Amino acid sequence: MRNEDEELERIKQTKLQEVMGRVAREKQEKTALSKPVEVTDATFKRVIQSHPLVVVDCWAPWCGPCYMVAPIIEEMARDYAGRILFGKLNVDENPETAMQYQIMGIPTLLVFKDGKLVDRIVGAMPRQTLEPKITSYLQ
Questions:
Q1: Any idea where the domains of the chain sit in the sequence?
Q2: Is residue 58 annotated as part of the catalytic site, yes or no?
Q3: d(CA 136, CA 42)
């Protein structure tokens, strides 16, 4: 009887550690994704395929309207953490991806669902205009 109790306690402790580790990893992942991730030519494909819904903000440091959209993207990344992954692609430093997706004007937001381009949103706009365009893909 004593050996069975010790075995049950060992199993209970092992399971508890597994669950606590999983919760900690999920919390860490959600925190890490609560801000836009930097996307490059080298990481682009992996990023858009790693999450069900990804929004890539194509921008450049010299672009005034890009700086108007940036805080909106950061807020939405925080508000939709775990549901939408937001990325930022500097088109000056990553010309291959910019050419592949024919980015002619910035800011341009590329919306990917299950790795496929489903929308392209060009230009700066307020959050109340932008948000419904993006969240419609959560369904």
A1: 1-32, 33-138
A2: no
A3: 29
- How crowded is the C-beta side of 65, counted as CA atoms within 13 Å? 12
List 54, 63, 72, 89, catalytic entry: 63
Tell me whether residue 66 is one of the annotated catalytic residues: yes
Q: Which CATH homologous superfamily contains domain 33-138?
A: Glutaredoxin (3.40.30.10)
Q: What is the pLDDT along the chain (139 residues), one digit of tens a residue?
A: 777 788 888 888 888 788 777 766 665 555 557 899 999 999 999 999 999 999 999 999 999 999 999 999 999 999 999 999 999 999 999 999 999 999 999 999 999 999 999 999 999 999 999 999 999 999 7
Question: Which residue in 53, 54, 55, 66 is the catalytic one?
Answer: 66
